[in-house]
Amino acid sequence: MLASQKIIDALNEQVGMEMSASIKYDAIASHFSTEGLPRLAAYFFKQATEERMHAHKFMKYILDAGGRVEIPAIPKPPHRFNFAKDAVKLALDGEYEVTQAIHKLMDAAVAEKDYSTANFLQWFIGEQVEEVATMDQLLKIVERAGEGGLLLVEDFVASGVEPRAAEAGES
Questions:
Q1: Residue 37 pLDDT exceeds 80
Q2: How far apart are CA 119 and CA 61, in angstroms?
Q3: Of 47, 58, 61, 49, whose CA–CA distance to 17 is shortest?
Q4: Which residue stretches of the chain are H helix?
Q5: In 10 A of CB 170, how many CB atoms?
Q6: Of the four listed, 20, 25, 27, 108, which is most buried by Cβ atoms within 10 Å?
Q7: d(Cα 22, Cα 54) in Å, to the nearest integer?
Q8: What is the pLDDT of residues 101-154, one digit of tens each?
Q9: Which run of H or E residues covers position 81?
């Protein structure tokens, strides 16, 4: 086995976190769909798919490292939100939690001199900077628009411009 059992166990926990994030995003997307906000719904369904892909990357790494994948129980996410900003805030808080967990994984890998796992985790560290920044910007946009301005948020999301890219002048 290329990674210690301690690292494999921590990676399995991360699989659970990524799956949990995916399910949260599906719940948020479903909420926005129910509320008649199809562009926000599509945005969060896309995010859910991305989080599942992250979980699968961790699973493949565990298997390649000679470990056994053991997906932990996934808690039921909230499925109703009083305000759109509450749903986006849940997503942002989740991205911060995932970021902290990946940093702890990196600390453990480096402490064990498991450079293969540390190298694998490097991509996720960069990805989390983007994920947090994008969700933070979306929250700011939703808060600025307010509940009465959600159709403007729909138009923004429909433009296909990621919130962070819009700020940097990219498209």
A1: yes
A2: 11
A3: 58
A4: 5-34, 38-64, 84-111, 115-145, 150-158, 163-168
A5: 9
A6: 25
A7: 9
A8: 999 999 999 999 999 999 999 999 999 999 999 999 999 999 999 999 999 999
A9: none
CA–CA separation, 86 and 9 (whole Å):
32
CA distance 145 to 161: 17
Query: Whole-model pTM?
Result: 0.91
C-alpha dihedral, 150 to 152 to 90 to 53, nearest 10°:
130
Cβ-defined contacts of 104-107 (< 8 Å, 24+) = 104/10, 105/7, 105/10, 105/11, 105/14
The answer to whether the beta carbons of residues 59 and 15 sit under 8 Å apart is yes
Residue 124 tokens read as 């996720």
Identify the burial level of 171 via C-beta atoms within 10 angstroms of its C-beta, where 0-12 means exposed, 13-18 middle and 19 or more buried.
exposed
Query: What are the Cα distances from residue 129, in Å, to 50, 70, 91?
Result: 15, 27, 14
DSSP string, 96-125: HHHHHHHHHHHHHHHHTT-HHHHHHHHHHH
The secondary structure of residue 9, as a DSSP letter, is H
Length of the chain: 171
